[in-house]
Amino acid sequence: YYPPGGGLKPGETRIDCIARELGEELKVRLKNAVFYFSYEEMNVVKNIPQMQHNYFVEFEGEPTASEEIEDFKWLTLSEIAEQKIVMPPATEEKLMKKLKLDGHLL
User: What is the pLDDT of residues 65-103, one digit of tens each?
Assistant: First the structure.
């Protein structure tokens, strides 16, 4: 599983990108986004380094997988903590570690 997201289009801000990607991938509307942190990871498809920018978001609507999403799942804090789902290495090593260190995950 991968968190929702994607690349910036020309002239697009990160907030614009978040709103577009949430709409395209989960069919919800962005209400608010607060920057959390960024890290560099390897794009395994293009085999190039890329920056991953992470935000806490609020949205309106019921998430529904779009045609470009094979499947999605909400994870409980215990499922995340117990690592009951396979995530990309950078997500697990950097994002999940920071969420735990900052007290967002038990």
Answer: 888 888 777 777 677 767 667 777 888 888 888 988 998
Look at residue 39 and give its three-state secondary structure. strand
Give the helix ranges, DSSP H, for the chain: 14-26, 77-81, 89-90, 97-101
Residue located via tokens 């997988």:
65
Q: How far apart are CA 27 and CA 61, in angstroms?
A: 8
Q: What is the dihedral of CA 74, 78, 84, 85, to 10 degrees?
A: 30
Using CA atoms, how far apart are residues 97 and 77, in angstroms rounded to an integer? Answer: 13
Residue 32 identity (one-letter amino acid): N
Q: What is the DSSP letter of 77?
A: H
Query: What's the predicted TM-score (pTM) here?
Result: 0.82
- Burial profile 4-26: b = 16 or more Cβ within 10 angstroms, e = fewer: beeeeeeeeeeeebbbebbeebb
